[in-house]
Every structure is written in C-alpha cells, then in structure tokens.
Protein: Molybdopterin oxidoreductase Fe4S4 domain-containing protein
Amino acid sequence: MKKVLTTCPYCGSGCTFYLLVEDGTIRGVEPNKENSVNNGSLCCKGHFGYDFVHHKSRLKTPLVRKNGKLVEASWEEAYAVIAKRLGAIKKDFGPDSIAGFSSARCSNEENFLMQKFMRAAIGTNNVDHCARL
Ligand code: SF4
Structure:
C-alpha cells in the first residue's frame, strides 16, 4: 500500500494526513503525526470524508444545458457559455444582478481570484463564501 502525504481539502485548518492507496484507489487515511498542525489528530471529515474521490456520481467534466438537458462539455465550451451568459446578464441588468459564491474547499489563492474576478471583471461586490452559512 502506497502512502501519499496530502493536506485535508475540507477547511482552512490545514491538517495533513497520508492517503493509503492501493492500485490507484484510496483505502483509508492515516493522520500525520510529525511536523503537522493537527499533531496526529483529524476530525471526522478529514478521517472519513474521502468517498467522493471515487464516487460514481462525481462530476469530472463541466456540464452545459442544451435543449433543457445537462450534457458533458469541454472546459473551453463551458467557459465560452459562461462568458457569453454573464456578459449578456451584465449588459441587460447591470453588474449587481450577478453574485459570486465561493467555497471553503478552494485554496486561499483561488478564493482571492474569485473575489477579484467579481469586483474587477464583473464590477460588483456581491461576493460570498460557503463558510459563512
Ligand atoms: S481534518 Fe477537520 S479540522 Fe482538519 S483540515 Fe480537515 S476538516 Fe479541517
């Protein structure tokens, strides 16, 4: 079994652990006891919350609505649809008709880029984050 050191994706505490990987599949988690903020401990999310990695319902490609149905699309196609729709909404209803909602599962840098995009490119301060729920 291969041990892969990584950082928990669930919150900003930054706990680290080893993923126990067998034939490319995660079989378990082992807390990191050395030089870690968690000092060998993990909450239930960090210890048991990895099922999504191999879950059959996990989205692996963007989905774009066509004729009322969500269909798989390339990132280029999805970005083109997003840019076109956001541009049209901004033009017709103003920048404050758009809001951005980010995630605690993104890195600080990704969240920074999200708010920068909303403020500088869209032109609104309507920015929030799931950790405030
Ligand atoms: S193990 Fe729990 S406390 Fe630690 S980073 Fe993950 S979610 Fe946060």
Notes: The CA atoms of residues 3 and 20 lie 5 Å apart. Helices lie at 44-48, 75-93, 108-122. Strands lie at 2-7, 16-22, 25-31, 63-66, 69-72, 100-102, 127-129.
